Amino acid sequence: MLQWQVADVMTRDVISVGPDASFSDIVDALVGNGVSAVPVVDVSGHVVGVVSEADLLPRVEVADDTGRRPRRRRAFARKARAMRAAELMTAPPITIAADEPVASAARKLDAAKVKRLPVVDGEGRLMGIVSRRDLLRMYTRPDPEIQRDVEEGVLLRSLWIDPATVDVRVVDGVVALHGTVETKSLAGLAVRLTAAVPGVVQVVDRLAWTRDDSRAGHGYTFGTPEQLVLPPRN
């Protein structure tokens, strides 16, 4: 497997609440399960919003407000009076599809400044939750699994390179490639695809090549790992 998807790392046992869940029900769900947010789903399983600890805090802050922050008090008043999830939740929800790359989830989490995202199917129904911690799971892969993916997935299946011609060594997620391949562009592509293997922390490039095709104009086309295009095989 050259690239993990959200479905490979997400948590499938998801705690959720309905739109009519009370303030107390939501607090119980958060505290009882040790999470900071829960998705709100309708009767059909569609995600309609997310309720987080931040959505519940206005009630605490307004209750303790001494009048020194009137603007803040007015801004929080509506949520402070809210009683149901439908009134408390943040909507529309920020979600991600199960077949999105893990890298996309990382970018979306960072851009939204949230700790977790509901994972949905093509119809917007809840499938799981992906958190920052889930994204780190791929870096716990054993070195032998990573080595197998590089040898079989990258070298043999993707680049048609005999793994016997390239020595692959993996220590704590750091992959060292030693050997000689046909062209300079092929060596570069091997390094880039290896770096995209789940669990790879770093690639040490010790590859040599027999022909420098960098100026020939017909080598391998470089782009993102998903867009890499191989020339026709002779």
The percent range for strand residues is 15-25%
Q: Compute the gyration radius: what is it?
A: 24 Å
- Return the CATH topology of the largest domain: CBS-domain
What CATH first level of the largest domain would be assigned?
A: Alpha Beta
* Uncertain stretches of 5 or more adjacent residues: 221-234
The pLDDT mean sits at: 85
Strand order of the largest sheet: 3-4-5
In percent, how helical is the residue content? 25-40%
Structural class: alpha/beta
What is the number of helical segments per DSSP (H or I, 4+ residues)?
Answer: 9
Q: Kindly state the number of beta strands.
A: 8
Describe, in short, the structure shown:
By secondary structure, the protein is an alpha/beta fold. It folds into two domains: 6-137, CBS-domain (Roll), CATH 3.10.580.10; 141-211, Histidine-containing Protein, Chain: A. It has helices at 6-9, 23-33, 53-63, 70-81, 85-88, 102-112, 132-135, 143-158, 184-195, and strands spanning 37-41, 47-52, 96-97, 116-120, 126-131, 166-171, 174-183, 202-211.
